[in-house]
Amino acid sequence: MRLGVVGHPGYAGLPEVMRTLRGLATPLDLVLALEPELLEFVPDGIRLEPHAPLDALLSLGGDGTLLRSARFLGGRPVPILGGNLGRLGFLTSCAGAELEVGVRRLAAGDYRAERRMALQSQAVGRDGVVRHAWRSLNDVVLHKGGFARVVRYVVSVDGEPVGNFAADGVVVCTPTGSTAYSLSAGGPVVVPTVESMVLTPVSAHTLALRPLVLPPDAEVRIHGAEGSEELLVTVDGQVGTHFHDGETLVVRRAESPVLVVRFAQHQFFGRLREKMGWGGLVERDELPPAGTTDAAGPERRQGAERGASAERSPAVPAESAPAQPAPTAATR
Known about the structure:
The strands form four sheets. The chain has a six-stranded parallel sheet, with helices on both faces. The chain has a six-stranded antiparallel sheet with strand order 9-8-19-16-11-12. Mean pLDDT is 83; it is low at 291-332. Helix 1 (14-25) runs parallel beside helix 3 (99-108). The protein has helices at 14-25, 63-73, 99-108, 181-184, 268-276, 282-285, 298-312; strands spanning 2-7, 31-34, 46-47, 56-61, 80-84, 94-95, 112-116, 119-124, 130-136, 139-144, 151-157, 160-167, 169-173, 197-202, 212-214, 220-224, 231-235, 239-242, 248-253, 258-262. Helix content is 20%, strand content 31%. The chain is of the alpha+beta class. It folds into two domains: 2-117 and 258-276, Rossmann fold, CATH 3.40.50.10330; 119-253, Probable inorganic polyphosphate/atp-NAD kinase, domain 2 (Tumour Suppressor Smad4, Sandwich). The chain contains seven helices and 20 strands. Strand 8 and strand 9 (130-136) form a beta hairpin.
């Protein structure tokens, strides 16, 4: 297997991971092609070139490293295995301690390649000339520069005007990117395999404006209503450029998807619960469903209930919290 390796040298656990990977190369018949920054860890590895033939790509870092890996492939149908050496790692498939097992399963073909929709974005001038083009797995954002004021944006979808509104910015994201910047701006969570585009205003200066879920083949056009000299476009939160006056951001579905390695035990809602606290308190989530019997007995249930109550009010245990008097006219 020709395995490309992309990594962030800033992670403390990277040297140990690279030693493990080097030890797996011979028994698993791996040919390692590494980014230049990683060659010091594997002296007998080869340099990873932009268009080198690959069977798979290993991303070592966090979600940002995986997004960079997807852009590196430029649409080639190469599955990406994300190894998480950071904190969140929502897009990755295995943490540092699980990496050896993950690489072994990758080499054995014991995985599924989940197809993730990507975006193709362009900065187009008044004359119709494309000045910049990007490919992104998460999102593309048109937003203001360093001035503390809102900007007016003109948005259209498939040639139909959506609106002219004031906001800090506009996010166009994929289902994969729905749990990134769009989510923090109030956008919906979209299951990654439900192909669509989400258009989310950032801090819009009106209560009537809400995120839009669009068909995957829609074309979104956005430009500044009062000129673009203060606008920036950011792709996957990592690359971008200043907008020139009169330019328009054109966003479409990319022709080819990104292939993300997933193993059988990985489920989307399980990752939401684990990584983002979806569903509430861990202690509460561990309780058995209503009407069932907990094998650990009532003591465990009571302990979990006390733990949940303590987390809500850590200073006073739930069972000893004094009753609060009804408010009087004076206390109100």
